[in-house]
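Standup notes
- DV: blocked on the single-chain target, sequence here:
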Amino acid sequence: MKKHLFPLFLFVLSANVQAQQDFFAIAGKDTSSIVFSDFRVMDVVNGTSGEKLFSADATAKVFSQERKGNVSEDKNSYGNSQSVTMAALAYDPMNNNLVYMPMFSSNIYILNAKTKDITLVENTVTKVTSCDINSHITRMTAGYDGNIYALNNAGTQLIQISKKGGQYTVNDLGIIKDDASNGKNSFTAMETGFGGDMVADAENNFYVFSASGNVFKIIAKELKAKFVGKISGIPEHYSVNGSAVNAKGKVVIASAKGDRLYEVDLETLQAKPLPGEEKPHIYDLASKYFANDRASSINTLANIDIYPTKVDEHLINVNVNDKAIKGNLILTVFDISGKNVMKQNLSVKDGSLNQQIYLKSLISGAYIVNITEESGKVLLNKKILVTE
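- DV (later): unblocked, structure below
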């Protein structure tokens, strides 16, 4: 019996290490003001910090998208890749990139988490001025559609950062306004709605967590922020500066003032502290997960899968290697609104199938691939991102 314990331990350890690579933070130094320290991996199971990916003291190699070459930056300015005032971060899992913006700058930076190379996107769409706190970008997240979204303090600019043909483009989606029901809990007022961070859900709407602990839901199609409620279970003067969804669908929050990490149930807004006693200064959090994700990689059998998940040639491969799977299967593709956009029958012989599927007429965006038996039993749900 004992001989099985060590491999099992390795399996659990490997799964935990993998999970830790899904969660990232902008960390600060132990000071009363915002002073960027590093980008780091977070272990949100144990509420502790992990590997430091890139620090304020590291040598930065910055490539300018506009100038098509490496550039040297003024480290004494607010607009550089290691600026002291960092407060907006998102993770792009398809490219293993960290996307971020300094508070006093409109510059967008793309840090490759593996190579540590940085791409500068000279953004002329966002209007950030150093003297106007309303204009500072303080919230950022990956959307369910594969794009990155960022929002300034006052909600006057919701921007979309997309990658097409190897180039990043920026679009201004408009002004976020208060829902008529918000009353005194205004999204656009400093004391109730500013700062914090945001997360996305599976309908590509957003939840903004303000520094004061208020939570607003932004319906993307309407550009309105509706007050949801206030987080309970955190210390009275806790400043919410980072938020990201974990693998369980809960929202992890962190504070720039140096405090424990908390896990928040989005339905009840009840928070509970994560087990670690560490109190890091966290300016922003990012992950690859989404709230209310109906396709959380349901896979009832280990030997059925589809690949790649980032589809740039409109082709995916379906692989089955399981004697328990027999006969005909049904592959269905849904868009993020739940609309059936494609269906195809598959035939498994002797528990084996390796078939290439052409995703004809699918435009760029996020989709859910669903594979079922003829009886309706779900074998696989998996999100894919179709790109140009």
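- Follow-up: The chain is about 5% helix and 45% strand.
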